[in-house]
Records
---
Amino acid sequence: MPAKAPQVTEAIAASLAAIGVATQVELQPDRPAYAREVGAKRIGDMAIFDSTPYGSFRVLNDKVSATTQALWWQGHDDPALELLVQRANAAVAEPEREDAYGRCLAWLRHTPPWLYLFHPIDVCAAGRAIAPPALDCRGVLQFVGR
């Protein structure tokens, strides 16, 4: 399982218990075996997996898209999202690609197929005197001068 998965699992189970939802946790300490189980769709109701750096394309096509139904796809099917993913995959120019993948991610934020968790490794802050930072199509934080 991904690093910190047992701790994340414990926190989710505690949160679910607080609202009356019972859980049964099965841990798979062998990461390659875990990946094979996820790929074979033997995960029960929930599994924890991490994403790939620079991975909007891979997350959408390997894990979310019902069109590709790649190894990590777990059954999510949203025709509106599929259209957005197709447009993003077809985009060539960087501004068009950034906009298209941004629309996919915005759609997923409002219609999430899974529970999103965030564990920051690096945190940065910027003063109001500079332009707001932006993420490019690869997920790289860009600081642009005013």
---
Amino acid sequence: MEYSEFQENYEESQDESLVSDESSSAQRGKFEVGIICAYLLRGVIYRQDTATLWNCLKEQKNKVHDYLIKLGVKLVLDENEGYAYLRSLTDEELPDVECLPPRLMARRQLSFNVSFFLLLLRHKLIEFDSEANGDMRLVLSSSELVEMMKTFYQNKSNDVKLQNQIETTINKVVDLGFLKPLQNRKDRGEHHYEVMRIIKAYFNAQNVADFKTKLEEYQNYLLEKK
């Protein structure tokens, strides 16, 4: 599975810098269009993390859109889910000019384990949304994440190796920005992670439905082997 249009330079420190910059910006006034675009080029902007920047983006979204189109990228803003990100223009969307801008959004080829785990998380988010009663934050413990993966690796005999493999996959998904470690939340020494809603932009309902069918086939196969 190819993972594309997600920023290469995603930084874990983004939240802290946004809070600091947002505070100083609130004293000066609203964010300028160029500054908003700079934040978008760094990574996803979430409403829950930075209200001032988010509101400025909404107010100036047309200007931001026009600014970014010249760079060969398009603004995607989902007000219901509370996130905004950039994607590369398709060939059909590119302007009819002789000199096109260089590609800013990186393309990545994901490993099977990472792709598999992302689809598990997306399926978990669908279940959560159907029962959440208005809560938009899905938080899972590290043991819950490990168990999600272990269920589908029943034929692995080396538990230590499997545990390390799963932890590596979790860390990779954190690096990609689909899981956010919650530094201030630890129960019984366990780490907790928020499933970031941007995952909905990359895996739609049809992806998950197809994936669920394959999972059921795989589980039936495991049962037949016993």
---
Amino acid sequence: MKLPNLYLRFSSSEMRTFYVYRLLRIDPSIHESAKHAQELVDRMEVGVTSSPYYRAYRYAKLETPLMAGEWWLPSKVHLLGIRRIYFKRVVNQQYGYWLVLQVLPSSGGKQLFSHIISSIHKEYLVVVNGRIPYRLLAEMQLSRAKRLLDKEPLTNMRILESIQELLDEAFTLDPGAFTGDRVYFWEQLGLYWSEFHQLGRMEHCFRQQAKLQRGSGDAFLNMGFHYSAVGEFKRAEQAYLEGLRTNPNDEYIYHNLTQLYLNIGSRKNAFKAINEAILHNPELASIFKLKGDLHTYWDELDAALQ
């Protein structure tokens, strides 16, 4: 599938050059390489066909040895997924510091395309000749995330960070791509972050899951449980209460919230939670049993027998 050209408009030549440095992985700290790379970028300023990367696609069929730090060479940029890249002053009668990018129809090209449109500020991006296939690109990121998640057990934080980046990019591109079991990719990653005691990242994952499961308290149930497990009782309480606002009939959240209040000795809140649970789930014997257990815990045996 051929992807459309990307036209990126920047407010200054310096900003455009800075972006090209990042795109081509030019390291300014390597003096000789940076000097050579800057000469190539300077040639792009002369005109479209003067760009040393204008016909970079010709190298894609050649076997070229790769040396560290040389991604920016015209003979190597195809390894980044770049087919052609050049500067323009005017696009569709709009003046600006334009960067025009074509990617190869390869896996690397699609990944680069996806990364650019999900990460660059939208005011810089204009698509002139075609529609961006957001769903396709999001699904591609999710496929990569799944391959990494399937490599259990995951004990490397860098891999988890890669999965996080892929899921976030997919969500930015098209939240609707998280169909079926894909929504649970967030849950899987959240559980891993909990094991690494990365609670902020854990919460982010569960909240993303919650956005995709409107009306379900499952993500908040998990969030509250894992906060409670590490003694973050206030955050656990907030997660459970937020889950009940999402689904007032979630018996499992009521159970965990009541147990939380029991653990911290808050009798008033424990009975308030269990009474609300009975109000919303009057047919569940397990909730009545839990209320009896609460009375027993506080030596209210007569009430427990009722």
